[in-house]
Amino acid sequence: MEPITDVRDISRIAYGFIASRALFAALDLDLFTRLSGQPKTLEALSRETRVSEKLLLPFLTSLVSVGLIVKDSTRYSNAPASESYLVRGATRDFGDYLRLVVGKVNYAYAGELEKALRGDRKPSPTGYYASWYSNPEDAEQFTRAQHRGSLGPAVVLARQVELGGRRQLLDVGGGSGAFTIALCQRNPDLAATILDFPETVAVAQRFVAEAGLQGRVRHIAGSALRVDWPAAQDTILMSYLWSAIGRSDVEEVAKRAYIALRSGGMILIHDFMVDDQLSGPSNAAFHLLLGVLDNPEMALLTPAFVRERLAQVGFTNIAASTLVPGITSLVVGYKA
Predict the structure, then answer these.
(1) pLDDT tens digit string along 296-319?
(2) Which domain holds residue 259?
(3) Do residue 75 and residue 187 come from a single domain?
């Protein structure tokens, strides 16, 4: 990222939170779904959202100003990206992920950053998602939102990685099963095991069943650092795991992966990573920054860091590539 030279760029950063709050409010009002395929006037939107026209007008204007919606004479419509990604029920819809995970959880969580940097914040032993699992209805909404947010990157990974001839996948820290589902759908001969904490098993089983894959996917409940991993695996995936554990734990799971793979086995590390020069991209840096609030021992992940840790335990032919531009990277290695 080039150093900024204009005071307006400082203001853009400082006031950026208002744009995100406007986006979350629009999702709460289901505005993008209301505009899908049918431009509407201020009067019509006021009637549907039950927001007065005098309040709705500056709100819509702010959304137009950042390009989320478009104003044509007296009618408003969705921008192309909003139509694709923010309309409820659309194929690529991840609005609930933004509304709940980012808007309700991450946004409030970021307010603790200054305290954490000063060392005045005590990390939660259960992580910042715990409160959302205390209420069954909230837990269902939150889990589905997380799952929707993971499906897009999972499909990209499944398209990018060639697993032809591989039969056994171990998804360590597989959560809702989004990546396992995408890989199994892409590779009909693949069977998988998801290893994650007990509270995630029922959730993953439900999504796996909805995908019609229950006969090909089994589950192991427990900590990846404590339970035994199944042996003779063809492929091991760890997605968003290394950014959730400590630096010393990274070395442990790398060793465990090497032992659990058969000769010729493949390891896939997918996670938020900044570049090797530690200069960005900003979205990856922000994700990793939030992670340190409850995980001060977390390593700042870069492709070089991941490659080095894999090489230390014996992996070879290690290569890194971008998965989600500006956010995540994928590092692939092999056991000789």
Answers:
(1) 899 999 999 999 999 999 999 999
(2) 109-334
(3) no
Place of tokens 């759908």: 185
pLDDT digits over 153-163, tens only?
Answer: 999 999 999 99
Q: What is the pLDDT of residues 231-263, one digit of tens each?
A: 999 999 999 999 999 999 999 999 999 999 999
- Assess if residue 92 is contained within a domain: no
Give yes or no: residues 113 and 25 share one domain: no
